Amino acid sequence: xxxxxxxxxxxxxxxxxxxxxxxxxxxxxxxxxxxxxxxxxxxxxxxxxxxxxxxxxxxxxxxxxxxxxxxxxxxxxxxxxxxxxxxxxxxxxxxxxxxxxxxxxxxxxxxxxxxxxxxxxxxxxxxxxxxxxxxxxxxxxxxxxxxxxxxxxxxxxxxxxxxxxxxxxxxxxxxxxxxxxxxxxxxxxxxxxxxxxxxxxxxxxxxxxxxxxxxxxxxxxxxxxxxxxxxxxxxxxxxxxxxxxxxxxxxxxxxxxxxxxxxxxxxxxxxxxxxxxxxxxxxxxxxxxxxxxxxxxxxxxxxxxxxxxxxxxxxxxxxxxxxxxxxxxxxxxxxxxxxxxxxxxxxxxxxxxxxxxxxxxxxxxxxxxxxxxxxxxxxxxxxxxxxxxxxxxxxxxxxxxxxxxxxxxxxxxxxxxxxxxxxxxxxxxxxxxxxxxxxxxxxxxxxxxxxxxxxxxxxxxxxxxxxxxxxxxxxxxxxxxxxxxxxxxxxxxxxxxxxxxxx
Length: 503
What we know:
By secondary structure, the protein is of the alpha+beta class. Among the domains are: about 1-60; about 185-210 and about 235-440, no CATH class. Helix content is about 50%, strand content about 15%. The protein is built from 18 helices and 12 strands. Strands 8-7-6-11-12 form a 5-stranded mixed β-sheet, with helices on both faces. Strands 1-2-5 form a 3-stranded antiparallel β-sheet, with no helix packed on it. The protein has a two-stranded antiparallel ribbon with strand order 3-4. Helix 5 (about 140-155) packs across helix 6.
C-alpha cells in the first residue's frame, strides 16, 4: 500500500514522538549510552523512511496530461493505470506508484515524468546506497559488504547484486579518469615520474555471465593425486601504473647505502604530488583485444601531456627489467629518462650473495654493500665483470652458477638505465616504491583475498573503482557519474533547475 503525503507525515510525527519518548525512558531505565545510541539510530531509520515517503508523495503521481514526449521527442500516451517501481534507499524499501507513458500496456515505457522530477536512478538502488555499498566493496569482499549493510542499516542486498552494481558503477570510471582536472601548476614538483609494473590476478577458468569475486560451489573435477593442490584458476596480468610529480632530491651513494641499511632515515625526502594510480587488464572491448600494458602506457603518455603541456618538466620513467615494459617505454615515452628500479637490482644482488655466503650472514651483507656501492658510483661494468669472474673462480655449478650469470646478464641488458651516479647527482628518484605499493594496495589487498577468483570484467571493474578510491577521487567520481546518468535519462524532459544542498 502506497501512503499519501498526509499519512506519511502523520506517521513521521508519531515516530518523532516515540523517538523523544525513547530517549526520556532510556535515561529513566539507566541504559548505557551505546544502548541508547543504537536504539535512537534504528528509530531514526524508520523516521527517515516515513519522511522520504512524504517527499515522494509530495511530488505527485507523474500525470502530465494525456500525452508526453519520449527521449526521441516522439509523442506517447498516458497508460491507464499507475505503474509501481521499487526504490531501495538507505532507510528501507519504497514502492513508488506513478503514471507512465508509452504505446500500450506490455510495451516498453517511453516516459515517466515523476522519475525525472525525483531524479530517480536507472536501477532500484538509490545513489546513496550504491555509493555506501561500493565504498564497502572496494575495501573488502562482497560478502562482507552485504553483512555490514545488514548490521548497520538492516538491509541485505545479494552478493550478485553488489557484483553487478560494481560493474555498472565502474562503467563511468574510465571517462571520469580521462576528464579529471589537471593539478594546479603551483602544487606540482619539478620532476614528472611515471612507473609501471605487472601483478597477477587469479581468473576463474569458467566464468558465469555475471560476477566478479565470488565463491561458487566447486565444480566436479577430474581425479588428481592426493598431494596435488587444487586448481584455483589461472593468473592474468594487470599492468599497474602511477604518475606523480616530485621535487629534485640530490643524494650521494653513501646516503643511499645508509638509508637501505637503516643507519639513517632520509628525513628530507620530498613527497609525491598528486599521485594517480590505476591498472589495466588485457580484455576484449567491442570485439577488439586491448592489451593492458599498451592501454596503460597510452594513458600515461596522455597524462604526461596534460600535466606538462609545454614540456618544461623532466620526465622520469622507473621500471624493473621486464622487456615488455621497456618496449612500451620505447614506443610511448622514448624522450624520457628511463631508470632501472634500484630495488630489483638489489634483489638480484642478494640472491648472488647467497651463492657465496650463508643467508643472513655478515659476509653476505658486506658483499651486497660493496657491489651496490659500486653500482651507485656508476661502476656497472666493473660489477658485471666481477660477478662473472667469481662464478668461474669459485667453480660454481648448477643453480648457483645460473643465478650469478643471470644477474650479470640482467645488469648488462639494462646497463643503459643504471647510470645511478648521474641520477643521484641530478636529484632523480631511483626506486619504484610507488609502483610496488600500488601493486600491493590496489590489487593484492583486495583482489587476492582468500578464495577469490575473478572474471576479467569483474576484476577490471574493481580495479577502476578501487583506484578511484585510493586516489582520493571517490566523492568527485560519485557526483560525476550521477550527473552523467541523470543527463542521459532525463535531459529530454523539461525540469525545474535542481537545488544543490550541502549536507
